[in-house]
Amino acid sequence: MDWTQQLTIVFATGYAMLLGGVIGVERELRNRPAGFRTHMLVAGASSLLLGIGMLWVDDSRQATQTVRIASDPLRLIEAVIAGVAFIGAGTIFSHGRADNITGITTAASLLMVAVIGIAAGLNYFVLSFAATILTLAVLTVLRLLDRRLRDRAGLRREHDPEG
């Protein structure tokens, strides 16, 4: 087992946590149910799981030269997404009426930081950074644009579940 590969995974995990934390700060500032630490942990766990999986497959192939090990890397990604779906569902709340649901954007941001963590875990650092910037643009710039358009259209904003 090569320790430099493990250090690369540690770096990727830290990088993913940093990017997830940036998105988490925005959610924290909006007083959402999942904030800074949660987003960091989801991104970091996603990256680490992918890194461990890739390392294990590589180590297994080296250890058993005579036995062919088949691995589907998409199963790791599916496992990450399933876990995040469970966490994301916990951030969605319904309050009385059917049109009074909160937390959907936070659940989506958790899914996005998981995917950012997956990208970092696969060492796609530029892609994960760009995805972070795009996510922040959606959470901030588009929120402001949405508010302006609603104000111009005369739509009420008495309940802004994702504000």
TrEMBL record:
The chain crosses the membrane at residues 6-26, 38-56, 76-94, 125-145. It is a multi-pass membrane protein. Pfam families: MgtC (PF02308). InterPro entries: MgtC/SapB/SrpB/YhiD_fam, MgtC_SapB_SrpB_YhiD_N. It is found in: Cell inner membrane; Cell membrane. Its main location: membrane. Residues 15-147 form the MgtC/SapB/SrpB/YhiD N-terminal domain. Belongs to the MgtC/SapB family. This is Protein MgtC. It comes from Lysobacter korlensis.
